Each structure stands twice: as C-alpha cells, then as structure tokens.
Amino acid sequence: QVQLVESGGGLVQPGGSLRLSCAASGSIFSSTYMGWYRQAPGKQRELVAGITRFGSTDYADSVKGRFTISRPYGKNTMYLQMNSLKSEDTAVYYCAAGGTGRPPEYWGQGTQVTVSS
CA triplet 49, 85, 17: central angle to 5 degrees? Predict the structure, then answer.
C-alpha cells in the first residue's frame, strides 16, 4: 500500500515560483519511478517531469529550464520546483509513482496551482 499526498500549491503571479511536495507513505521502496503530472480543465492529463531511483530526469518541453524535479535519497518525498511560472501552467498537479517504463500505479489527490495577475 502506497499513499501519495501533494502540498505546496496555491495562487502565484506570473513570473513567480512555487515548490510542490509529494509525501509518500507505505511501501514506496518498490517504486522505481516517480513523476509529476498536471491537468487543466477540459484538457488531458500530461506528464510534466519524471525521475528514476537513479536520479535520471525527464521534462516536458513546455517546462524545460523552468521546472526542476528532485527525489532526495533515503526520503519518501519528491519535489517539483517551479520557476518563471506562466498562466499556461495553471492546472491541478498530481504526484505519481510506479515502475520504470510503465504507467504509474499510485496517484496523489492533486494540488491546485493557479498562475494569475
């Protein structure tokens, strides 16, 4: 059993920054991949950033150079540092975990990120 809980979302002005956190409980050791997804109203959920147990990362083209994913060794926590935020980044952000090379099997409840004003 694995439970993922996101936090850190909120309202931010364009150009601002936010850091999202994903706290994992349960048997997270079997998860070799963790990632952040987002979904805007009326749009499909998309992968934002992913990271393996070895630290290899991948990013959506739309966030490269602005977002950074991290997964400190020995901690059941994952982060997404978001800088230079744009209105297009507005979405519900989800934490996910699973095995490398396959769809995530664990999901968080989501946290709202709104970039406005």
Answer: 90
Q: Whose CA is closest to 31, among 76, 98, 79, 94?
A: 98
Taking Cα atoms as reference points, which of 56, 77, 58 lies closest to residue 67?
Answer: 58
Instruction: Dump pLDDT digits (tens) for 26-48.
Output: 766 567 899 999 999 999 999 99
- Could you report the per-residue pLDDT of 64-75, keeping only the tens digit for each? 999 999 998 878
Tokens 């987002």, located at residue: 38
Beta strand 91-98 pairing with 111-115: antiparallel
